[in-house]
Amino acid sequence: MQQHAGTHTTVLLSEAVDALFQSQRAEDTPESGTYVDGTFGRGGHSRRILSQLGSQGRLVAFDKDPQAIAEAQTIGDARFSIRHEGFAHMGELPAHSVDGVLMDLGVSSPQIDTPERGFSFRFDGPLDMRMDTTRGQSVAEWLATAETQQIAEVIRDYGEERFAGQIAKAIVARRQAGGTLSTTTELAQLVADTVKTREPGQNPATRTFQALRIFINAELEELQQALEASLSLLKAGGRLVVISFHSLEDRIVKQFIAKHAKEVYDRRAPFAAPQAMKLVALGRIKPTEAEVAANPRARSAIMRVALRTAEGVA
User: Fold this and answer.
1) What does the buried/exposed string (b/e) look like for 64-92 if buried means 16 or more CB atoms within 10 Å of the residue's CB?
2) In a 3-state reduction of DSSP, which class is residue 84?
3) 264: helix, coil or strand?
4) pTM score, two decimals?
């Protein structure tokens, strides 16, 4: 099978790393401290972080993708370590030991552009979509046994697809007729035959592929776990930086920051002191027009930044 994988252009590279480093240091003073890159990908953010860390700095990265792990192992730097795990596992690091956490969500260009990974309807490949190809079910395996209602709920909830019910029925009907869905092309064609209307310029299968990828990798559940873990990891004054690429992710990040950026009163104890806020929202940043023109995949990116307060930090 022909390889289409290309290079990955890191979105909001300078903005994210600048937001991560909270110290007001002089221009030529290297950063110290310990940082976490929750999604190594192809290492764009990690390499930029390392370039600004001093000799005492440390960077711990996480990724589920074996290809990302292979890329990370080319970094010969004693300050850097990589863990072959999803970023929800960052909670295993010592509490209040980290000065900054960066999470760049979504799929990297090499993942999308490699047909064997099955992420894209643009190339014919196995219907896989697993971030970690060493474990778990592929999309094809799940679709081979899932019930109509299960499939419809996934496509509706994770893809915001209004034709989810019809697509799910078509998938199950094909299976009952003895047909299989084992390739990206087969699924994309089934969706195109089922969805008769679509937004101009968008492939009919876009939302379905997004939904199945998010579901099979438990992306939203893992994001929620990682955000909670970041609260216990960050030192007072530490930064949380999250780049999301679709509304479901951004909504979770926005609501998480908002929840912890206000005092909480216990209605059962109206005279008790409120629980102090744990985060301070520092802003929302989108790519510039120039970045989007140079890298169209950046167009939907939203970066949110928050500061960890001293509440609950020993």
Assistant:
1) bbebbbebbeebeeebbebbbebbbbbee
2) coil
3) strand
4) 0.89
**Cβ-based neighbours of 138, under 8 Å, separated by 6 or more:** 118, 126, 127, 128, 129, 130, 216
With beta carbons less than 8 A apart as the criterion, state whether 31 and 21 touch: yes
Of 299, 289, 227, which is closest to residue 11 (Cα–Cα)? Answer: 299
Buried b (16+ CB within 10 A) or exposed e, 173-186: ebbeeeeebbbbbb
Rounded mean pLDDT for each run of 10 residues along the chain, 314 residues in total: 51 94 60 93 94 94 94 96 95 95 86 83 92 94 97 97 96 93 96 86 91 96 97 95 95 96 67 73 94 90 96 72
Report domain extents, the chain.
Answer: 13-109+219-247+268-308, 133-216
Overall CATH class of domain 133-216: mainly alpha
Token reading at 270: 């109206």
Q: Please name the CATH architecture into which domain 13-109+219-247+268-308 falls.
A: 3-Layer(aba) Sandwich (3.40)
Alpha carbon 157 to its chain's center:
17
Q: Rounded to whole angstroms, what are the CA distances from 209 to 130, 157, 311?
A: 12, 13, 41
